[in-house]
């Protein structure tokens, strides 16, 4: 699969849905997109160039989700594959986190 988009592309899609491929209409809502700090540099990376970031998604209601690769579709961003881990459960929905650690 091709390289994932930079942080700025995801930041522009906060509060939008990413549909699970083959998930019968199940979707994740992107709730947060934040840069990860570079442990070797004090200089922040601009969002349009940032390729080390964390994404938080809110999963579908009443669906138990496991850690693993999720194939997603988005109307603006196309098809993506993300490894996601459940980090919290709230109001019958799982929060899932994906860490993207690409090279700048």
Can I get a quick summary?
This protein has 104 residues and is mainly beta. It is 5% helix and 47% strand. The protein has one helix at 7-11, and strands spanning 17-20, 27-35, 52-58, 68-74, 78-90, 93-101.
Describe the protein in words:
- Helix content is 5%, strand content 47%.
- It is mainly beta and 104 residues long.
- It has one domain.
- Strands 1-2-3-6-5-4 form a six-stranded antiparallel β-barrel.
- A hairpin with a 2-residue loop joins β5 and β6.
- The two termini are 18 Å apart.
Write out key terms for the chains shown.
1 helix; mainly beta; 104 residues
Q: How would you describe the shape?
A: globular
Largest sheet: 6 strands, antiparallel, barrel
Order of helices and strands: HEEEEEE
In terms of per-residue confidence, which ranges show pLDDT below 50 for 5 or more consecutive residues?
Answer: none
Terminal CA distance: 18 Å
What's the β-strand tally?
A: 6
- Mean of residue pLDDT values: 86
Structural class: mainly beta
């Amino acid at each position: 699969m091709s390289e994932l988009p930079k942080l700025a592309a995801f930041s522009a899609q906060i509060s939008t849905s990413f549909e699970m491929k083959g998930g019968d209409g199940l979707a994740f809502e992107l709730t947060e997109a934040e840069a990860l700090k570079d442990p070797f540099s004090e200089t922040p990376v601009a969002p349009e160039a940032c390729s080390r970031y964390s994404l938080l998604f809110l999963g579908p209601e009443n669906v138990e989700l496991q850690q693993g690769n999720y194939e997603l579709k988005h109307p603006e961003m196309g098809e993506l594959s993300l490894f996601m881990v459940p980090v919290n459960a709230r109001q019958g929905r799982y929060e899932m986190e994906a860490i993207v650690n690409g090279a700048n």
